[in-house]
């Protein structure tokens, strides 16, 4: 199939076997699509608020928490902080978009899957879900009023003295 021209020194495949060159317009089109569909990645300035913050009572000595540990906290697979204080997680209502995001990113489960998990736990007598509150203000108040409490609020919520944990 390969042919060598008598006047050419290079051996080249026939035109139908050569890879098609897309040119720079393909790269430009890809960049445009990325800019349209991923504006945060393209134009983020680092000053945008986080989608949520994990907050604890100001008396809690923790400053950082592993994502996996935090998931275990909200699924009540662990019940005490490393300081031996009782953990009291609090959730937003199931209809909250912030709860959906927190559940997807931290628990690695949908809100519906978490609800199903808690139905099984309650039915088998192994536990009850964290309380569900209707607003971020109620979550902040709960965290401030209960020493072992942990909750999550939006990146723009006023946290009134609660402490923000870094999640790794």
What amount of the residues lies in strands? 15-25%
Q: Biggest sheet, strands in spatial order?
A: 4-9-3-8-5
What about the largest sheet?
Answer: 5 strands, mixed
The first-level CATH class of the largest domain is given as Alpha Beta
The helix fraction, in percent, is 25-40%
* CATH architecture designation of the largest domain: 3-Layer(aba) Sandwich
Question: How far apart are the first and last residues' alpha carbons, in Å?
Answer: 57 Å
Low-confidence stretches: 2-13, 35-45
How many helices does DSSP assign?
6
Count of the separate structural domains: 2
Mean pLDDT: 82
Strand segment count: 9
Computed structural class? alpha/beta
Shape: globular
CATH superfamily label of the largest domain: Periplasmic binding protein-like II
Cα-atom radius of gyration: 26 Å
CATH fold field value of the largest domain = D-Maltodextrin-Binding Protein, domain 2
Order of helices and strands: EEHHEEHEEHHEHEE
